[in-house]
Amino acid sequence: MASYSTKFSVTVLGSNSALPANGRHPTAQLLNANNHYYLIDCGEGTQMQLRRYNLKMQRIKAVFVSHMHGDHYFGLVGMLNSQHLLGRTKPLKIFGPPQLQQIAELQLDAAGGRLQYPIEFIALEKVGEGTNEIFRDKHIIVHAFDLKHRIPCLGFLFTEAEREHTYLAEKGGPAGVKIEEIPVLKQGMDVVREDGTVIRFEDFTTPPAPPRTYAYCTDTLPLESTVEHVKGATLLYHESTFLEKEKKRSKETFHSTAKQAAEIARKAEVEALMLGHYSARYGELDEHLVEAGEEFASVILSEEGKEVEIGSPI
Question: What is the mean pLDDT of residues 89-104?
Answer without folding.
Answer: 97
